[in-house]
Amino acid sequence: WLRAEEVAEAAAAHRRHYARYGVAGCELLSGAAEAIGAVHAAGGRGLVVTAKSTPLAEAVLERPGFGVDEVIGHRWGPTKGDALTERGADVYVGDHTADIVAAHHCGAVAVAVASGPIDAAALHEAGADVVLASLDGFGVWLNSWLRAERLARLERRLRELGSVMVAFSGGADSAFLLAATVLAAVPEARHLPVPR
Fold first, then answer.
1. H or E segment at 144?
2. Where are the beta strands (DSSP E) in 42-182?
3. How many CB atoms are closer than 10 A to CB 118?
4. pTM value?
5. Burial of 164 (0-12, 13-18, 19+ CB in 10 A)
């Protein structure tokens, strides 16, 4: 253990050694680049919020050419949530229970990845909204979540309108809007059999 007056120098020494020896040994997790790619493809911004210092995190992420939009360092638990709140995050992915706390702190979906020291059961128990075995499945999950979110938003908007007329051309767009309008107006229609 360190005395309080020794902590600052020990942290500085750690950062010096990490910059010299640690950065070179870091590798991207499987699926990480594809996960950021999925976020960008969906029109989102890829943020890394980490307990590492910002310069060290940037050095780690620059080596493999990892294309994030912003790196925010020196954050842990709820302070990660503050950074996410400031940036309007909808989803936060992490491998620690403190990342789940951060996501819930800002009202984001907590996606936990069981690739670190904490297993899937513990991540579920800590309140993760979704637990993935690895980042390899994130893109599929994100697309599914976005589709459900957009449909729910459309349904809420249609309900707010109260009365809607759909000009039905027989094309895919008008058929989709007509079906969404029926579901918004008559939620029980979800359970009706589809005529063949």
1. helix 138-161
2. 47-49, 70-72, 91-94, 109-113, 130-132
3. 21
4. 0.82
5. middle
End-to-end CA gap in the chain = 72
Letter for the amino acid at 94? G
The residue type at 57: A
> What gap in Å lies between CA 66 and CA 64, rounded to an integer?
6
Assign residue 137 a region (left: φ > 0; alpha: ψ between -120 and 50; beta: otherwise).
Answer: alpha
For residue range 94-135, list pLDDT tens digits in order: 999 999 999 999 999 999 999 988 999 999 999 999 999 999
Helices (H) and strands (E) in the chain, counts: 8, 5
- Cα gap 180→158, rounded to integer Å: 8
Q: Are 138 and 31 in contact (CB under 8 A)?
A: yes
Q: Which helix (H) or strand (E) holds 103?
A: helix 97-105
Give residues with Cβ within 8 angstroms of 68, minimum separation 6.
36, 46, 47, 48, 61
Work out whether the CA dihedral 151, 157, 161, 162 comes out positive or negative.
positive
Nearest to residue 81, comparing CAs of 109, 101, 57, 53? 101
The helix-helix angle for 78-86 and 97-105 (nearest 10°) equals: 40
